[in-house]
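Supplementary Methods S3. Input chains for the assembly prediction are listed below.
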Amino acid sequence: MKDERFWNPYLSGFLLGLVLLLTFYIFGRGLGASGFFDRLAAAILYPFSPDAISSHPYWHKYFYHGRFPLDNFLIYLVIGVFMGGLIASLIAGDFKVRTQYGPRFSKGKRLIWAFIGGIILAIATRFSRGCTSGQALTGGAELVVGSWIFAFSFFFAGPITAVIIKKMWR
Amino acid sequence: MGPLFKISHPSHAVYIIVTIIIGMMFGAVLERAGFISTKKLTGVFYFDDFAVLKVMFTAIVVASVGLYFLSDVGLIDIGRVYFSKTFWISQLVGGLLFGVGFMLTGYCPGTSVVSLASGSIDALFVVLGMLSGMWVFGGLFSIFKSLYYAGKLGRITLPEVFGVNHWVVIIIVAIMAAGMFYGAELREKYLREKDKL
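Predicted structure tokens for the full assembly:
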């Protein structure tokens, strides 16, 4: 819907496309976000059991050649995403401490479902090997087969879930 | 000739600073697109706000045209651009779960970070949930492992699958996007007029 607070979506999309293209040109890779959380998760566990985490069947890839999971493109990128979001929301006057949910829902329930949904979202990104940024956007532009499969199944499950949990949002 | 940082390696400090600047541009565009609002984000699946669809597919087309054009004219070595490997069964399941997670949280991972930066408490819970979800996945990896590696096809693109030039696929994607934009505009116009009554 037309919302005067925000930029025209086609303009936003054009600029987002240019940012992605610039990322391809400079780094030889695309954007991403979910990898940040996985790397952070591995890094937090590491001090408790360095050997177990650095040889873990899934997380060991973050420790190749003596590397540490936090010294990575996605970590710096998402730190930048947070800063960019903060600055843009302050300048635009959007910054506001708030909790968002539909008129028929409650704040407590919203926060519980936000947490549970976050768990599902994270597990989903492991199977899909990325999220909207790393798969739909980056892989979509690269024309990667798996990325388009991800995008289609995401757009298939989304509307069905939307109907089931309508009370949460509308 | 690109990719710049793969042709000539920058210092670690330059790499970090440039990455943070790119991230800031990414975050600022997501914020200005309105992706701090769960109403706007969930609107794509309630068919009452198509900003997500418009932003995403415009960006995909712009970046795709740009990437393959730079490659065709020799300004980027596309062989040195990272393409994620396809595990189609795993990614199909991942996409379905992602649709559920997106609707339950009202965000995707990137937009949850931007919304948190703009002051959303609910986004903080999503972020904490995602961190926990990574622990769940890592902890249960032995159970998830066979599905995780299911449908392995390697580095493969749509033009390779269909045996056509990449521009054929890009034009089809662009036409598909234009068709969806047209439908989205009609639907939004209908909703605006209904609101006025």
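Chain B is about 75% helix and 5% strand. Residues 55 and 148 of chain B are 30 Å apart (CA to CA).
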